[in-house]
Amino acid sequence: MRIKLPTIVRRVLEANSFWRENRLILREFKHFRSVAYAAIAFAFAAAFLEGITVGLIASFLQGLTNPDEPPIQTGLAWFDTLFLATESSPEERIYRLSGLLMVGVWLRSCCDYLGQVYSKKASLSLVDQLRRRIFEQLKSFELSFYTTANPGALISTLRGEVKQVQQAFDLLARSFLFTSKLLAYLVAMLLLSWQLFTTSVLVFGLLGVGLTSLTSRVREASFEVPKANKTFTSNTLSFVSGIRTVHACGTQDFETRRYTKSTREIYNAQMGVIKLAELVQPLIEGAGATLLVGMVVVSYGLLISTGRLTAAELLTFLFVLVRTTPIFSALNGTLVKFVSVQGSLSAVNDLLRRDDKPYFQDGHRIFTGLQRSIDFESVDFSYQLEEPVLHDITLSIKRGETTALVGTSGAGKTTLADLIPRFYDPTQGRILVDGIDIRSLKIASFRQCMAIVSQDTFIFNTTVRENIAYGVSDSGEADEQDLYEVARMANALDFILNLPQGFDTVLGDRGVRLSGGQRQRIAIARALLQNPEILILDEATSALDSLTEKLIQDSLERLSKGRTVIAIAHRLSTIADADKVVVLEKGRIAEQGRYQDLLETRGKLWEYHKMQFEMSRT
User: Fold this and answer.
1) Bigger pLDDT: 522 vs 94
2) Which residues lie below 8 Å from residue 437, measured CB to CB, with a gap of 6+?
3) Mean pLDDT across the chain, nearest whole number?
4) Beta-carbon neighbour count of residue 19 at 10 Å?
């Protein structure tokens, strides 16, 4: 259900900078508005009871100090009779007020507690909702987003800055509670003495205006904190991910200096905010103490001596003022602290924006299986605004055949293969699957019929069993017999059974406990378990020793039987039996045809064949 706000309210909100900058975050409150409303209701109830308690205290003091004087009245007959016991005897009034005072205090405490619980629940719900929404965002981006995005910055935003959002809205809830109490106290002060009330409002009003410039400076300083956090997270992630390179290059001292610099940047950014934010409380406490002394002097000299104010009323007013000063201080301090996390709010808001990021546009047609071919029609491709990587690619990949892509490094082989599962879309031209534009296919149904084994196999920080079964089922589980069978076919069963816990061995981040060849065989077992119709092999045997390469090549031959295969090869001997060989040079198709036919033409493939033959002899 959507709440349609009046036009004037919407215009005010759109003009308000806070709403404008954080509307994507504030919008998430719609998922738990009842919890937020409950928090507001209990805050109002606590403030109302606070005001009643002040009235009861004033009447109680009046009864103690001047029992023969007429009791304090508000002018509301029902309130005076029910709560202030104006029609009762002095003694009965004291007893009744004592009981009502205790009940009021306990009720106010209960409302305070419930208000805090519901406000915390609302802020935690907001963080939970934001994290899930950001994750949905990350899933829906095109792959091109991740080619330029900083992983450390993304993790920092998802973890650290979203946590700051919770703190921000905890502070916002506290400021609402403080405001409600402050209003209740101001009403009580006005009823006690409009003269003293006016003086107090003027003093604190001027102080509030003076704090506005301080708040602006805190807001400006707050944007440096998330920047420093992102740099720190990025450097730490880079260090941990590249620890082998760090040790191999002997750059531990350099990394220490870089790490120290990033932690110092966080320290400086946070101290810049703290130095400004912590000024609020001493300023307000000093102003409150000055005002309190001034009130005593003015009241005694001008009001009490002329009979316009009783001693009990003055004591009650001073009591309220003493209670008001820390609340006013806390309110301003809370608002300043809230402003101090505006940088984090801005970082989260920027990640939630949809108008400045590339989003994947899914199709609507369910893919039920490849019947004829995958066809490239005059396809060009470039990464964002860079020079084109592929030029005028026209190619047909027949069902059930093996198509090999050959070329030097940077020729565009992997880029061409990446267009098939729609990791990227062509800049120009189109790709057809059985005559249907690939962009109109429901991509999940298409990718479910496909498996990819690349030279850089990603291993998850979980068990062997879950790594092999990844993508087969949501639970990450598979039939035990199937697991053993695909592991055997991938020549991986022997080394898996020799691991400490066999299939239940946790492989560590990115599979650090495995060799390169072992990681490849896990990937092949994963592909075998998926039983794909289309198979993409991206230099799956590169950078391996001869024995391991032979084992993996045997596994790949088993995996490729009866499937449509797109194979990127660095060793021509592995694709000699391919149905078609496509030779790429500088993003263009130099030649294509059967392996032996291309050798006979003595073109580019013949040059590569001759070069590898000569290298093998040396």
Assistant:
1) 522
2) 430, 431
3) 77
4) 13
CB 38 within 8 A of CB 118: yes
Q: Can you tell me the distance from the alpha carbon of 37 to that of 59, in angstroms, rounded to the nearest whole number?
A: 33
- 53-67, 172-186, 265-279, 490-504: range with lowest mean pLDDT: 53-67
The total of other beta-carbon atoms located within 10 Å of residue 69's CB is 12
Quote the pLDDT of residue 405.
92
Gap between the Cα atoms of 115 and 128, Å rounded = 20
Residue 484 tokens, joined: 């053993």
Which residues contact residue 401 at a Cβ distance below 8 angstroms, ignoring those fewer than 6 apart? 564, 565, 579, 580
Q: Which domains does the chain carry?
A: 24-352 (1.20.1560.10), 361-449+564-618 (3.40.50.300)
DSSP notation for 459-511: --SSBHHHHHTBTTBTT----HHHHHHHHHHTT-HHHHHTSTTGGG-B--GGG
- 456: phi then psi, degrees, rounded to nearest 5: -115, 80
Amino acid identity of residue 510, one-letter, is R
Residue 99 and residue 613: Cα distance in Å, rounded? 102
Question: What span, in angstroms and rounded, lies between the C-alpha atoms of 298 and 306?
Answer: 12
SS3 of 319-349: HHHHHHHHHHHHHHHHHHHHHHCHHHHHHHH
Query: Which letter, b or e, does each residue of 93-125 get, where b requires 16 or more Cβ atoms within 10 Å of its Cβ?
Result: bbebbeebbeebeebbeebbebbbebbbebbeb
How far from 13 is each of 4, 23, 24, 84, 337, CA to CA, in Å?
13, 9, 13, 42, 22
DSSP state of 365: B
- Sign of the CA dihedral 454, 458, 463, 469? negative
SS3 state of residue 272: helix
Which residues, including other chains, have CB under 8 Å from residue 321's CB and lie 6 or more apart? Answer: 189, 200, 288, 291, 292, 295
Helix (H, G, I), strand (E, B) or coil at 564: strand
30 Cβ contact partners less than 8 Å away, ≥ 6 residues apart:
2, 3
531 CB neighbour count, 10 Å cutoff: 13
Give the closest residue to 251 by CA, choosing from 266, 239, 261: 239
Exposed/middle/buried for 354, CB within 10 Å: 0-12, 13-18, 19+? Answer: exposed
And the tokens for 234?
């990025």
Asked if 382 and 547 touch (Cβ cutoff 8 Å), the reply is: no
Report the alpha-carbon distance of residue 111 to residue 42 in Å, rounded. Answer: 5
- Determine contact, residues 464/518, Cβ cutoff 8 Å: no
Give the chain's end-to-end CA distance (angstroms, integer). 74
Q: pTM of the predicted model, to two decimals? A: 0.65
